[in-house]
Every structure is written in structure tokens, then in C-alpha cells.
Amino acid sequence: MPPTGGNTGKRNVKITTQIDLWNSKTRLGEVFDSNTGFTLPNGADRAPDASWVSRERWESLTPEQQDKFVPLCPDFVVELMSPSDSLRKTRQKMQEYQENGAKLGWLINRNQQQIEVYRLHQDVEILAHPNQVSGEDILPGFVLDLTSIW
Predict the structure, then answer these.
(1) Who's near 101: CB < 8 A, 6+ residues apart?
(2) pLDDT, tens digit, for every residue of 96-140?
(3) 20 inside domain
């Protein structure tokens, strides 16, 4: 995956930082940025813009598995649309995460100021112009503040 532009990178940090601050308090899992590769159950290698894996699933991996591309699909994924991203392809990626076990996913479309919420075994929900979005029962107590993302 090629490097991203400055504005997208800046927004990715804001998203990942908020998730990491929540996780530092709860210690429920591990947070990853866009540099982390995951090998999904279908064999595809993916690197979501931000992701989270529950502590139980992370600790079930060997140290060797933790050091390489992580051989599982994150429980939670975020994709932030950049100017060069195709909405169709990013939606396909979100569906792939869901099909491979992601319990919650957010596709953040800054230009439209909307979030597509992907939940396991449910239809996609589109939130128009939200100021925040909840981590629901996957990230209990977490709320992403979107005011600095838009």
C-alpha cells in the first residue's frame, strides 16, 4: 500500500489516537495503525487505516504470529476514504472484512461527511453528517469524535 497524502495521514492519526486512548484505559485489546498487515482467513493481505483486536484473540497468537502479518481479521476496522480511493473498491474491502469475521467496521467518507457502519450479519447503516459514532458493544464505552475528521 503506497503512502498516503498529508491530510489523510493527519486524520488517520486522529482516529487511531482516539481508539488507543480508549484502549489504554480499558485494556480490552490491541490497537493497530495502517502500517499493520493482517492475513485474513481467505488468504488476502490487508492493512486497514485503524483496527482493533480483542485481548483474548491477540493473546491466542504465538509471539512469531504477532511479529509477522497478523493471521486473523481484526474485530474492528476503520477505512478512511482518501482522494485516490474508489468508493466501490473500499466498500468491497469492507465487505471482505465482514465476511472474514470483523464484528464492526466504519467506512468514513469525508467528502460526503458520512459513515457506513458494517456490523456482522446486518445490513450496512449509513450515518449522514454525524459528529460522533459509537463503538457499540465491540468497543464498549468508545465514541469517536468526528469533528476534527470532517
Answers:
(1) 41, 72, 73, 75, 120
(2) 999 999 999 999 999 999 999 999 999 999 999 999 999 999 999
(3) yes
Neighbours of 17 (CB within 10 A): 13
**Sequence-ordered strand ranges (E) for the chain:** 29-33, 38-39, 45-46, 50-54, 76-80, 104-109, 114-119, 125-128, 132-134, 143-145
Question: Phi and psi of 115, rounded to 5°?
Answer: -125, 130
Query: How far is it, in rounded angstroms, from Cα 110 to Cα 105?
Result: 16
Report the pLDDT averaged over residues 34-39.
Answer: 97
SS3 46: strand
User: 116: domain range?
Assistant: 6-145
Q: Could you give the maximum distance between any two Cα atoms of the chain, in Å? A: 42
Give the Cα separation of 140 and 93 in Å (integer): 25
CATH of the domain at 16: 3.90.1570.10
How confident is residue 22, by pLDDT bands cut at 50, 70 and 90?
very high
